[in-house]
Amino acid sequence: GASIEDLTWRHSQTTWAVAACMLWLFEVWRFANVVPPTELEVAVAGLVYLGLYSSRYQEIVQLPQHYRVTFYASCGWALYSYASLVHVMVGSPSGVGAAEAFHGAASAVFVGSCAYFYHFHWSRMYRH
Q1: CA–CA distance from 27 to each of 13, 20, 34, 74, 113 (Å)?
Q2: Which of 29, 80, 94, 120 could form a disulfide with 69 if both were Cys (CB 3.0 to 4.6 A apart)?
Q3: Looking at residue 38, what DSSP letter applies?
Q4: Phi and psi of 70, rounded to 5°?
Q5: Per residue in 8-37, is it b (16+ CB within 10 Å) or e — as a string?
Q6: How far is CA 46 from CA 18, 30, 59, 71, 75, in A?
Q7: CA distance 74 to 14
Q8: Is a pLDDT exceeding 90 seen at residue 126?
Q9: Nearest to residue 99, comparing CAs of 48, 56, 42?
Q10: Which residues neighbour 55 within 8 Å (Cβ) at sequence distance 6 or greater?
Q11: What is the pLDDT of residues 14-41, one digit of tens each?
Q12: What is the spatial distance between Cα 35 and Cα 28, in angstroms, rounded to a whole number?
């Protein structure tokens, strides 16, 4: 079988994965210290999510279906996560606006991603 030494570490995915981990660590720190998000964080998160997923989507088709389903569902989950961050930053006090529309659409994508992911994996477990 393949080992960790067999991985191609010099790849754009590695850079984006490290950036995503750094963003996650920062956000954990921010949550723990009750620090509100900033416009810079929204911009960095958008860039990191875009880079992370765009560096993978062309190669994902080479993997078995259960990995592809997980990847595609995680795209929806990431979109919802990003929309939630945007909504916290620029949400309208009236509850009606572009951020709310984006968050609402991303919520539907999130629910669809969950349905897609769990239907596939639970069906797969049931068959086995």
Answers
A1: 21, 10, 10, 18, 23
A2: 120
A3: -
A4: -65, -45
A5: eeeeeeeebbebbeebeeebeeeeeeeeee
A6: 15, 17, 21, 18, 13
A7: 17
A8: no
A9: 42
A10: 11, 12, 13, 16
A11: 899 999 999 999 999 999 999 999 999 9
A12: 10
Token pair in block for residue 18 = 């490290």
Residue with structure tokens 């669809």?
Answer: 112
Specify burial of residue 48 (Cβ count, 10 A radius: 0-12, 13-18, 19+).
buried
Residue 51 token pair: 């880079």
Which residues, 6 or more positions from 91, have their beta carbon under 8 angstroms from its beta carbon? 97, 99, 100, 103
Q: How far apart are CA 20 and CA 45, in angstroms?
A: 8
User: Does pLDDT of 116 surpass 90?
Assistant: yes
The pLDDT, as a whole number, for residue 79 is 96
Residue 100 tokens read as: 């709310």
